[in-house]
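Aminotransferase structure dump, as promised
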Amino acid sequence: MTIIPNSMEGRDIAYQMHPNVNLRKYEKTGGVVIESGDGIYVFDNNGKRYIEGLAGLWSVAVGFGEKRLVEVARAQMEKLPYYHTFAYKTHGPSIELAEMLIQMAPVPMSKVHFTSSGSEANDLACKMVWYRSNALGNKDKKKVIGRIKGYHGVTIAAGSITGLPRNHESFDLPLDRMVHTSCPSYVHFGQENESEADFTTRMLTDLEDLIIREGPETVAAFWGEPVMGAGGVLMPPEGYWEGVQKILRKYDILLVVDEVICGFGRTGNMFACQTYGIEPDVLILSKQISSSYMPLSAILMNDRFYQPIADESDRIGVFGHGFTASGHPVATAVGLENLKIIQERDLVGNAARLEEQFLSRLAELAKHPVAHSSRGVGLLGALEIKPFDDAKAGDAALTVTAALEKEGVIARAVGEAICFCPPLIITSEQIDDMFDALERALDAVAAARA
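structure tokens r here:
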């Protein structure tokens, strides 16, 4: 392994502008330089090994350093390193991956459109919702309902559907066509003496009241993640998704399901739609579609959604949208091989088999004096940390996460939650290693504050 000199860190501070950081703070502190990866582990430029407890960014299903993906990328680079899908042209990898996704889809789907990120996919899906409304002559049916704490990306439309203030402040978002309904996290927003069933009823009432207040004739679509990932692994209460779909059907509102984090095995089923009985009109996929070895995302749409759009393109003469890298041959070749690996190695089954151990370890750690509660599904979970009385909101989770990194595990703090989403290849022994390190980190924080 080649060790990058420490001077690399200073060069990074000087020239690279990072996403999702306090830029002034980063100028002073710098960050960790990751040099290489192998399986569930990554290594920094000083040779320290970490368990990647968030699979990069919720995404590296098959682990780091998978030789089959490297070889497929190399072979495709030699054969056809780039071509587009504009103007009636295409190529083999995008055709094969589209066919595979249609066959895998949790509900009948008609077409697949490729983009390069979850943000791009959600943004385009929103444009397509508006395009479809125009095609049907519903010129006023353009509003989109997102959810408080929902996350769908950071482009202008996707960032507007997102329900996180940090993605809105100083960006002049959200757009005025975007409205947000209540966050269905019982652990955070359940009222005193309110049962989970009553909480679900209140969440559904909030949604229907919002639709009526805005005017059903103006609301085109509802956006939701089966489990709200970047909001802090927020679980839907019992009966929530069944009730949401009933309301949307009542008012003829499209359902767009964002499985950018949940898709391809994370919840113990190939899709979280299967876990929660969701039947989307549009399904947004990314991250684990290629294990993020290449930038790739996909929009799957049913015939109800697609046909009016096709009709409108015929009337206008063209579907006036496209990205240079849509359906990129190397990205789609890697995605195709990645999904074959997930199937051949039964990584979805691995998530299902390890779910009990994964969630039990989290639940046991929730009894720690520093912790509050735990939650999760499959290999997606969070440990809620008790807020510090003498600190800002979120500082407790950040403190534990920093202690955990010293113990050789990378996780992510969201609010007061520490989120875990390890590669799907993780073993039972490695789960214990990860959570043993978390216990040591919790002990260290408790001792430091004693």
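The longest strand covers residues 371-377.
lmk if u need the other ones
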